[in-house]
Amino acid sequence: MILIVDDRPENILPLKKILELHRFSVDTAGSGEEALKKVLKNAYSVIILDVQMPGMDGFEVANAIAGFSKARDTSIIFLSAVNTEKRFITKGYTAGGVDYLTKPVDPDILVLKVKTLRKLYEQQQELRTIQDSLRKEVDVRKRAQEELAARVQELQTVLATLPQMAFTITPDGQLEYVNEHWFRYAASPTTFPDIHADDDICPGWESCRDAVTEFTREVRLKNVSTGDYRYHLLRILPIRQQDVLTRWIGTFTDIHPQKQAAELLEQQVEIRTNELLLKNAELERTNHELQQFTWVVSHDLKEPLRKIQLLNDTIKEKYLKDNDEAVSYLDRSIRSSARMSALINDLLAYSQLSAPEPFQPTDLNDLLDDLLLDFDDVISRRSALVTVAPLPVLEVIPTRIRQVFQNLISNALKFSQPDQPPVISIFGERIDRKAIDADPADEGPFCRIVVQDNGIGFDEKFLDRIFVIFQRLHSRTSYEGTGIGLAIAKKNIDKHNGLISARSRPNEGTRFILVLPVNQPHRLSDSSSL
Predict the structure, then answer these.
(1) Are 513 and 436 in contact, with CB atoms under 8 Å apart?
(2) Which residues, in sequence order, are CB contacts of 278 under 8 Å at separation 6+?
(3) I need a labelling partner for 52 at 20 to 30 A (CA). Which of 40, 77, 133, 401 fits?
């Protein structure tokens, strides 16, 4: 804003119009006293001041304005038609004016001077704003440096009390501070401890320093006094302030006792492992001998048992036709011999499950079609209905999986309702994980197969018992069997890295659920997992 000060309105009006035509904002005052009041309230970039005025003249007004801090950047132009002598011009400059014009004044010259002085005023205001900003920034930086120095002092105090060797490193990698423990392994505060030649840290540390990331390494340090090497854990962390790396903080922690204990434990583990390997080898030999023994014993038991059965049948047919009581006793002996034969066969089958056999891709539909032919007579005699939905090709041991389905189908036919024909359904689907209740997935890595019947069922509280060898839920007089079939099925499923379970209720049928991998992780079954 421009202030025009003159006691004569006819002098103010033309100057005001000229300046307003050039888009200046103009204010006026009719006396020196009024001008001073306005200067106290408003900021003016230029004051055009008449020299000769009643009361306070222009020189007195200029001297007074010079004492106002608010007007320190305001430029004063003296304008006079009477006081044109050199002494008055000199007095005007002395009073604080930047120019002294005499009337009549050239309007264009005046406008140019006002423009120049206003621009100078604006630049001075910008400069002062920048100076204030810089002053504030300097104060902030000074406070930050003071705070940082206090934190560094606090950090050094903390590091000095640590039981570890502690140190700080400048951003360019020079040691800055070390605590008292440092001198156990280092000769001076500016050199690193002597690190064992096999524990060179330079490549790793340089990489972490360039990436400004944490560095951790186990190293052996040489004790200055004893010359012995001890294991230490070295950790160096970057410290940032406002995303700028200020220093690194590091520690050497003595882990020698733990390292010695770990090495001793490793030696003991190695000794134990070798002992276990020897025990396993011995166990495998014993297991092999036991299998051969079982085979021989089973074979030797079956031969006299066949003779007993044959002789009992011969005696029954030739000599006891008319003796009903003797025939009854002999029939019981024949049935016992048959149960003994079945038990020997099942035991022999169970003992042979430990032998390793190769997995191979197998079409379960073909396997079941062939298996069901063995049950034709029973299915026909019992008027049973067996349906098999399409099943995928899986990597299995065909003979073992055949045993599983044979036992499940045999049980479904055996434990049927007495007043209705058996109905057996076999179906499957791909699933997303190895779990009985896994979600279906078209390309899942496992397959869930269900064998469902409408038989007598069982209470699920006995679920854990049915897969244990020789465990039965029904008496032999009600249902035949040795109690080994489901144990064989479970062992076979375990051999396939799968799961087997059941869902059932009394008199509401049973659902046996198998979960098998589509592809086996090892193509040869491992007997050590059994």
Answers:
(1) yes
(2) none
(3) 40
| Spatial distance between the Cα atoms of 219 and 233, rounded to a whole number of angstroms | 6
Q: In 3-state terms, what secondary structure has residue 105?
A: coil
Q: Which of 212, 155, 199, 207 is nearest to 178 (CA)?
A: 155
Tell me the C-alpha distance between 230 and 232, whole Å. 6
- Name the band, by pLDDT with cuts 50, 70 and 90, for residue 344: low
Q: Are 171 and 245 in contact (CB under 8 A)?
A: yes
The total number of residues shown for the chain amounts to: 530
Q: How many other C-beta atoms lie within 10 A of the C-beta of residue 471?
A: 14
Locate 34 and state its tokens: 């009024």
User: Residue 530's pLDDT is what?
Assistant: 36
Residue with tokens 């190293």: 219
Give exposure, 500-513, as e/b (b: 16+ Cβ within 10 Å): bbbbbeeeebbebb
- Omega cis (within 30) before 189: no
| Whole-number Å distance between alpha carbons of 145 and 139 | 10
Q: Classify each residue of 317-351 as buried b or exposed e, where b means 16 or more C-beta atoms within 10 Å of its C-beta.
A: eeebeeeeeeeeebeeebeebeebbebbebbbebb
> What is this structure's pTM?
0.41
**Amino acid at position 136, single letter:** K
Candidate from 51-65, 197-211, 288-302 with smallest mean pLDDT = 288-302
Strands 244-254 and 165-169: antiparallel
The tokens for 423 are 């109905």
Angle at the Cα of 162 from the Cα atoms of 156 and 165, rounded to 5 degrees? 85
Burial of 308 (0-12, 13-18, 19+ CB in 10 A): middle
φ/ψ region of 470 (left if φ > 0, alpha if ψ in -120 to 50, else beta) reads: left
Question: 85-121 pLDDT, tens per residue?
Answer: 777 777 777 777 778 877 787 888 888 888 888 888 8
Instruction: Please answer whether residues 391 and 429 qualify as being in contact, where contact means their C-beta atoms are separated by less than 8 angstroms.
Output: no
Q: How far is CA 296 from CA 55, 61, 291, 346, in A?
A: 143, 135, 9, 14
Contact 217, 199 (CB under 8 A): yes
CA separation, residue 12 to residues 88, 110, 368, 440 (Å): 22, 14, 119, 97
